Amino acid sequence: xxxxxxxxxxRRYTKLNGASYSTxxxxxxxxxxxxxxxxxxxxxxxxxxxxKNIFSDDLEEKSDIVWTLADASSVEESPVQS
Length: 82
Description:
Elements: E1 2-7, E2 10-15, H1 21-31, E3 40-43, H2 55-61, E4 66-71, H3 72-77
Parallel strand pairs: 1-4
Antiparallel strand pairs: 1-2, 3-4
Organism: Ilyodon furcidens
Protein name: Rad60/SUMO-like domain-containing protein
């Protein structure tokens, strides 16, 4: 399965072999040359964080979206918007 993923302003297709959250993150990190130890968040097209508990549900429901990877430090430093 191919997915559109963006990171730091760059968009690329990422091929997913298996449908697990950890596999998706690992393969997306490899695709963008993100070091393994870098903590990232996965977000959907609305900017909502997608965690491992709902990843497979989102994958089935939203097969044609652009997933976003964000460094944990940039997400944690962002002010909360209302």
